[in-house]
Design a protein that fits this description.
The chain is of the alpha/beta class. It has 14 helices and eleven strands. The strands form two sheets. The chain has an eight-stranded parallel sheet with strand order 1-9-8-6-5-4-3-2. Strands 7-11-10 form a three-stranded antiparallel sheet, with no helix packed on it.
């Protein structure tokens, strides 16, 4: 495909971005996606400051292509993360879960592109007013932490596309070339995929979790914990325990106590499929194989170009 706003902004071959997922996207996955022509992202939300520095260094050694770091703005050690990112000259930062006004200017003053993740038109406009270089509009189909509005990608992307004047990246439920093309027809300039890259050979997710993703069927995920931070996860034993707790009309404190600490690490990184939090998107039902990042990117682009050519010549739309 020809160059567009996203490929030009990030200096990448394809407008495919791998999401910065906690416990799944370390340097190995990020560098593999970048080497394949997309934009790989290191997910710093599950990393101590020194671990992030090691991941950035290893990523730089593994690729000469652009890569990014995702920084949840509510992260407790964010000052140290930002310092490392600036000192180590990371070219692109994706921010989420917080006010983009806090760090955008400082990052840009250090020649770093800033992209902010939103789940509504309201927050897209706020992020644009803060001067970010691009926006990710993430629909409620997405895995992990999500918007309370429960707006689907098909509804969110065209609304945000009409409202903003900067490049737009679509996320949530995008799994292949067909869904990539669909969101770009709706107004996106590129796509961000998380779920598709969880079940990837270079993903740092535990093999138990990868296999669980391969077995996921329609309806096997659900959005929960909206009183704390909405999160989409597989309906495992821990999810069922949450459902039972909800029947008692629990307080926010009771929900926090039930969630505890390290629940996502337990499930996705350590492979405890019963007691862990297994964050994944609705599109997991369409994943049947574990491929390399290069194979995934190639499959997506081959299908994207084929379907695009078929639509342009199809008689069924005449």
């Amino acid at each position: 495909m020809t160059k567009n706003q996203i490929t030009n902004l990030f200096k990448i071959k394809y407008p495919i971005i791998q999401a910065g997922m906690i416990w799944c996207s370390g340097w190995e996955l990020a560098s593999a996606v970048s080497n394949a022509g997309g934009l790989g992202i290191i997910g710093s939300g599950s990393m101590y400051p020194e671990v992030l520095r090691q991941n950035i260094l290893k990523c730089k050694n593994a690729t000469n292509q652009p890569f990014a770091v995702n920084v949840p703005l509510l992260y407790p050690n964010i000052e140290e993360h930002i310092k490392s990112i600036i000192e180590m000259k990371v070219p692109i930062v994706f921010t989420s879960a917080g006010n983009p006004n806090t760090w955008t200017k400082q990052l840009q003053e250090n020649n770093i592109k800033v992209v902010h993740v939103v789940s509504s038109v309201k927050f897209a406009l706020k992020a644009e007013s803060c001067g970010v270089d691009a926006i990710v509009a993430e629909g409620f189909e997405a895995g992990g932490h999500n918007g309370r509005e429960e707006t689907t990608t098909m509804c969110l992307v065209p609304d945000v596309a009409k409202a903003i004047n900067i490049p737009l990246i679509a996320a949530g439920g995008i799994i292949d070339g067909k869904s990539m093309l669909a969101t770009m027809i709706l107004g996106a300039d590129g796509v961000q995929m998380g779920t598709r890259f969880v079940a990837c050979k270079e993903s740092s997710a535990h093999e138990n979790f990868k296999n669980m993703v391969l077995k996921a069927k329609e309806g096997d995920t659900s959005l929960t914990l909206k009183e704390i931070t909405p999160v989409r996860m597989i309906k495992n034993k821990f999810f069922q325990e949450l459902e039972e707790l909800y029947k008692t009309n629990p307080t926010k404190e009771q929900l926090l106590n039930k969630l505890g600490r390290g629940r996502a690490k337990l499930g996705m990184f350590e492979g405890d499929l019963n007691s862990g939090e297994l964050e994944i998107g609705q599109a997991s039902s369409q994943i049947n194989n574990v491929f390399t990042a290069k194979e995934i990117v190639q499959q997506i682009m081959t299908e994207f170009n084929y379907v695009k050519s078929q639509i342009s010549t199809a008689n069924k739309f005449n």
